[in-house]
Design goal:
The chain is mainly α and about 140 residues long. It contains four helices and no strands.
Amino acid sequence: MTEQIQQDQVRRAARRGVLIDGVPVSALGVVALALGSSPSPGTAQKDWWIATTVVFTLAIAWVLLRAFRRTDEYLRRIQLESMAIAFAAVLVALQVATLLDAAGIIQLHQVAQLIFLGGVGLWMTIADLRTRLNR
């Protein structure tokens, strides 16, 4: 029984660590999205957007690496399988959006960011549900 309580405390600490790492990165992502959403950006705004996006991408990689190092093999497997499912969903959504763009129904550049953000949301939702339901 005490081993189960200790494992729960370790998992709770790992989630708290990801939350502490992830909140500033998420805020940086919102800033990058806001900078890139201007219909007619100037040169300085483009430079800031590119720099913010590069820093955001590196920060995401850093948070993921730290999260993987904190977890055990089982949780790593859940995370990697959740990423694989979300990656496949993003690929399918991008393919559908490309076909719709070629048909003139939508514009791909308007939905590409939403597809990627939806993929990240799907990944985190699947990982969270699998972690909670497989206890």
